[in-house]
Amino acid sequence: MKSTRIVKILCLLCAAVLPLVAQGQFYYATNDDGTITITGFSLSPYDPIIVPSTINGRTVTGIGNNAFTGIVTCNVTIPDTVTSIANNAFGGNRSVVNVSIGNGLTNIEDFAFAFCSSLTSVLIQGNAPATGGTTVFGADTNVTVYYTFGTTGWGPTFCLVPTVLWNPPGYNYTTNNATVTITGYTGSGGSVTVPASIHSLPVTCIGSNAFYQCNSLTYISIPNTVTNISDSAFSGCSNLTVAVIPTSVGSVGDFVFADCTSLGGIYFLGSAPTVGSGVFSGDTNAAVYYLLGTTGWGATFGGLQTVQLNVPYSYTNYSGTISITGYTGSGGAAVIPSTINGLPVTAIVSNAFNRCGSLTSVSVPDSVITIGDNAFSGCSNMTSVTLSTNIANIYNGVFSGCSRLASITIPPNVTSIGASAFAQGTSLTNVTIPNNVTSIGDSAFAGCNNMLGITLPTNITSIGNGLFSRCSDLTNVTIPGNVASIGSNAFYGCTSLISITVPNSITNIGDNAFSGCSKLTSIVLPNSITSIGNALLSGCSSLTNVTIPNSVTTIGYYAFAHCASLRSLIIPNNVTNIGFDAFSLCFNLKGVYFEGNAPNVGSSAFLATSATVYYLPGATGWGTTFGSPPVPTAVWKPQIQSNDGNFGVRPDGFGFNITWASNMVVVVQVSSNLAGPSWTAMATNNLTNGLFYFSDPVWTNYPARFYRVSSQ
Asked: How far is Cα 133 from Cα 116, in angstroms, rounded to an integer?
């Protein structure tokens, strides 16, 4: 049996069938053999998950059922100690993109990664594991499984998804304990920034001779994941002029930069590391630069003169321009200078101010033309930003997680906004987007739950995946007429959105696009789409009216599930397929009216509804019931509407509306005596858009007047 001990830490109360133990952010159960199975995790949205190899001295060997199903994260790293991943461990997780698994995995159960709609990469570093079947990845259409050189059991596919031998361009490397050591460089040289990770594994070491005599190399920036630079790593790089060493590096080996005869500056962003012998041997023109506030520095370092940099920024000088690489100040208001040492500041590199919680405001000068990915991501106390008017792009994640930023003006020259640029901006209520913007990346405003409304520029052509997902206060949005597609999860969880009009320019709407919009009462879909995507309007519990266009041929699974206020709808005659659970749990659904022959239908399509399926006279394929579980069927006949306000005496006579399927021909017959009725056809009309108003101007000429309607 698993451990029955229950531990309460801080204010966390765990109530479950299996007792859970809190260890940091992980929840787990102890197995009979003393090993650990991870059962859950809590974290800030989009933080990476790195599963530990041990907890309290016990080895982590398993990922349990549903452990990461509801976690919002992009990257997951699983250690070599894990041997099994259970059923639905990640099932239905729509945010996870990359998963890296160590070399110990021997078994993956069914649906472990099923319905992970954003999943693109799964790296398995060992031999191909056993599986419960072919459903490990369920309906995941974008995923590729990567395997490492020398492992066995791999074919062109794995559980029906393609496999690729893992070999990122530009670098040779080895892996050990879920970390990467760069062992060689095969790129074209010039300005090189070593990646912080390769397939979600952190790069922690630059190996011996990795860049030895790489004469094409002119600039090298090492990521903040690297802790060790080994012997002769950059020795003999005769054209190298600048090297940037991050705060994470604690050890620099022998002769690392020896005979780099063009080297002018080595910029250390942290305190002095330990260094080996001859580290700068032959570098007669170089100096070591270090930042104010770091420790361990003297007048010389490794035999070179040292120079203290007094500005509260780390930076690099490349081709006579300055790029800000980090912030070393005490917080508050940051005013970035337009020049440093007489050189123009033109760029703020990726992650330069990442997670700088002490920063309250920032002003970016007009000299800056580029701000890199995630430059201000996670600046949780930043309340205002002034941007350079000369930037053309707002790159991925630049202001993601800036939870106190209430408004921002995007400069007029900006033409693109990257993925997750403002994601999790929970205080953001107002964003002005200039009309020059032609593209907005996926999830750019995801999680901005105080945003009330936004006007999109007229030149964009697509609404990206998850663009406004979980914007729970968003009440209205205008989609421009040039937009051709709406991505998956685009408005997922917009619980305050009441109505939306989708223009006829749109030809594709992704899965879950409006799922969970619980206040949405109506939606007009365009005649240009051919399918209703999976779970498109699922959970729209206030939806009372939806028109399915005649162009639609397919209704996906869960398309209208949990639409508890939906009472009736018309299915056009071109629909040939309805997915499983398409209308399940629509508790108030009474009538579903089909204009064509009976389509193919998935299981539980009308589960837990009170629906009757109506079909037209002459349609084929219908029986006394439809679907499984079955719902009753009946012939759909024209109806006189007696409760819609048009029934009764009007200036032109006694009249009423008749409803039926569009373009059907209806006959109105009249009689003045039901005892021995003689019925006379008074009107024959085509029901344009399913409606016809009938009026009898001579009804007063008869002591009694009776009406009935029928098909022609």
From this structure: 17
CATH of range 21-161; options 1.10.10.10, 3.20.20.150, 3.80.10.10, 3.30.1330.60? 3.80.10.10
What is the full DSSP assignment across 550-572? TT--EE-TTTTTT-TT--EEEE-
DSSP for 503-514 reads -TT--EE-TTTT
* CATH level 3 topology of 457-635: 3.80.10
Q: What three-state secondary structure class fits 690?
A: helix
Q: How far apart are CA 283 and CA 266, in angstroms?
A: 11
Q: Give the number of other CB atoms < 10 A from CB of residue 438.
A: 16
User: What pTM does this model have?
Assistant: 0.56
CB–CB of 272/290 below 8 Å? yes
Q: Residues 349-390: pLDDT tens digits?
A: 999 999 999 998 888 988 999 999 999 999 999 988 888 889
Question: Which residues are CB-neighbours of 482 under 8 A, at least 6 positions away?
Answer: 458, 459, 460, 461, 505
Burial 63-78 (b: 16+ CB within 10 A, else e): bbbbbbbebbbbbbbb
Cα 65 from chain centroid (whole Å): 23
CA-based max dimension of the chain: 119
Here the tokens at position 351 are: 């992650």
Class of CATH domain 311-451: alpha beta
